[in-house]
Amino acid sequence: MSPSKVSTITFDSFHNIVDGQQRGGKEKHHGVNPATGEELWEVPVGSQQDVDDAVTSAQKAFESWSQETVERRKELLQKYCDHYMSYSDEMTDLLCAETGKPRQFAEWEVKGVALFFNHHMNLELPEERIEDDEKVLLTRYTPLGVVGAICPWNFPLILSLGKVIPALLTGNTIIVKPSPFTPYTTLKAIELAQDIFPPGVVQAIGGSDALGPMLTAHPGIQKISFTGSIATGKKIMAACAPTLKRCTLELGGNDASIVLPDVDIKKVAPELVMGAFQNSGQVCVATKRIYIHQDIYDEMLKEMVNFTKTIKVGAPGSGALLGPVQNKMQYDKVKTFFEDTKRNGYKFAVGEPDVAKGNGFFIQPTIIDNPPNNSRIIEEEPFGPIVPTQPWTDEEEVIKRANNTNTGLGACVWGKDVERAERIGKRLQAGSVFVNSWEKPTPQAIFGGHKESGIGGEWGQEGLKSFCNPHVLHTYKSK
């Protein structure tokens, strides 16, 4: 197997990648710079023919790629990492343009991908052996086949390559569909991969929302890995049923933070704020509800407000801590939470009751002081820089309040009494619980949700199994 080479990498033209080759399309679409409202570069809209061709190529590549040793796959993944990182400055510029992230956070995402590569270089496919007097049972994990990765717009590189790396390590081939809102960095990352991997091992097709159903319906795809909204995740699960595709769904959350009365208020207040407003609140596992013990509620809220007032919101390169909401659709959705809060007379502890109009999709970070339990801002996920706080006094009651949601992605508990914090954390119905930290998922641990926050999980040693079938060899000893 010898790698296919693509043409010299440029960062002002974008193509789908099918069978190792750049491919255009009859239809075009473009992203929008959320900091300016200006149109970005044209991107081809993938067609059914593109999907069919990509699946055929991926199936052919799977025959040999799945038989490569894990050591060889790791060798090529390391070469891919090095190749990708050699373009880190260009990728950072591109990520700033398509997401509006402040440059330091765009650079963190671009370089954070290397952590995923490096961690997976240290993993081995699990193998379990059981022997008795009669037989030996050897349980291995073998690749599924062709994987379809449907990726979101909030962390386009981390959440696309976070699927590519374990899929390839386990011997699968993969077709990546980037979000139409942020196609550029993902298409370019997959273009770079063609210099390393044989044709068909990793491909990318961008386009409209019509492309997702083409992948989920295709009988030649064995798994869909999806990160996105609960509503779309339910549609994907239903679409996978006719062909019994495996699917991993990492969906939305309404993550609660419980703050115990013994915390250092001045130290914890900024951390609570960052947990809620990191990436302008556009994080599936961001803090969405903050429950502060009544004894320290007023003082903690005051410190949170003081820190929030220091946060600068602006375009990349402006020295801002927070950028814009990534797209107009989400911007308009977040504004409805402001409208609902204002209409119902809930208290704005800090922030702007009316979101200013402008070319970019900017929203000042906002805290809502003690809205009722049945308010939209408590019950729903805004996916933007607005968060509610509520006081609590009874531990059992606040645990029930935190768990009173149809979601269960992440949660936090803050307290100097770590034993108490961990005890509470173990009772929170969420896939990832963080004690004395805001939500910081890591490639070292499996990441997935409870309830309607998803099905299955990926990342970490255990996450490798989601890209595999268990294969048991029963060997009976000769008589």
TrEMBL record:
InterPro entries named among the record's database cross-references: Ald_DH/histidinol_DH, Ald_DH_C, Ald_DH_CS_CYS, Ald_DH_CS_GLU, Ald_DH_N, Aldehyde_DH_dom, LUC3-like
Active site: 250
CDD domains referenced in this protein's UniProt entry, alphabetically: ALDH_AldA-AAD23400
Source taxon at top rank: Eukaryota
Its EC number(s): 1.2.1.3
Family: Belongs to the aldehyde dehydrogenase family.
Species of origin: Baudoinia panamericana (strain UAMH 10762)
Oxidoreductase as UniProt keyword: yes
Protein name: aldehyde dehydrogenase (NAD(+))
GO molecular function (one): aldehyde dehydrogenase (NAD+) activity
Enzyme category, top tier: oxidoreductase
Keyword set includes Oxidoreductase: yes
